[in-house]
Specification:
Helices cover 16% and strands 39% of the residues. By secondary structure, it is of the alpha+beta class.
């Protein structure tokens, strides 16, 4: 099966893939092939399995990085994973001196 990464949080190690069959699949970092790193909008290939809470993707391999996809606008393909370190860090820094 093939699909597109909806989001993948590298810090937490999980995300979701929109399968070409119209279903969403949970993906955990343990389901990634060795050396595979996911970002939003990457095109992937995977096998399906039934998880505790629904369908999940296993044996996930990267087919095409989002940044290499000509069908995506430039700003979408350049987006980082959903858990941007900059936004989290800047929020902490802004609040440190306020207490």
């Amino acid at each position: 099966m093939e699909g597109t990464v909806k989001f993948f949080n590298r810090k937490k190690g999980f995300g979701f893939i929109a399968g070409d069959d119209g279903k969403d699949y949970f993906v955990h970092f343990t389901g990634l092939s060795k050396g595979t790193f996911l970002r939003d909008n990457d095109k992937v290939s995977f096998e399906t399995d039934e998880g505790e809470r629904g369908p999940k993707a296993v044996n996930v391999t990267l087919l095409q990085k989002a940044s290499d996809r000509p069908d995506l606008p430039k700003e979408e393909s350049d987006s980082e994973d959903s858990d941007s370190e900059e936004s989290e860090d800047s929020g902490v820094e802004e609040n440190e001196g306020e207490y």
